[in-house]
Design a protein that fits this description.
The protein is built from six helices and seven strands; from the N terminus they run βαβαβαβαβαββα. It has helices at residues 21-30, 53-57, 70-83, 100-105, 126-132, 168-190; strands at 10-16, 37-44, 61-64, 88-91, 110-114, 137-144, 154-161. The protein is globular and about 50 Å long. The chain binds 5-O-phosphono-beta-D-ribofuranosylamine. Residues 18-22, 51, 92-93, 113-115, 140, 176, 179 line the site of 5-O-phosphono-beta-D-ribofuranosylamine. 5-O-phosphono-beta-D-ribofuranosylamine binds at residues 18-22, 51, 92-93, 113-115, 140, 176, 179.
Amino acid sequence: MATSIGSKKIRAAVFISGTGSNLHNLIKFSKKRVSPISINIIISNNTKSKGLKFADIYKIKKNIIDFKKKDLAEKKMLKILKENRIDLICLAGFMKILSKKFINNFHGKILNIHPSLLPKYKGLDTHKKVIKNNEKFTGCTVHLVTEKLDSGKIILQKKIRIKKFDTVETIAKRVLTQEHKLYPEAILKLFNF
Ligand code: GRF
């Protein structure tokens, strides 16, 4: 994907539903000179999303979108994204599935971070499944979003070893640390740095 470093950064939106640690990490990355992206809008489907505080802290526009009517929600989001000249969407713990119609508007320009070594363990409860199956490794993946859940082209992955006494919580903690390294690296890779 071409970029315009040296002139303007690529305008990105981050979609969240919860804590927003990946969002916070991406905001910090976006402020670095090397970052090809700026974060211009934060969208959440959840009024209680803790991550929304980062919009206030970093003075980034935020929008809360009610997903009760998905079609309407997506129409609203597309309008906001267009108004804000957004060219890249980073999903970061966004718990809603986007429609094919929405995704087609941003073909190849929606990224997601997933807490497993895809194509293994798509969907929810990845760490639980990893433990149940006695896996030796797990990790995280940044991939392009397509209409098929957690199935688009893989940009980058990081692997961690499962230890004997690991629990869902200890794995989640170590994977999240890796996620915070991975997302910026994947963005740099996507834009050829
Ligand atoms: C991360 O584990 C991410 O991989 C998954 O949801 C979690 C979000 O965490 N999609 P946070 O809200 O970024 O802290």
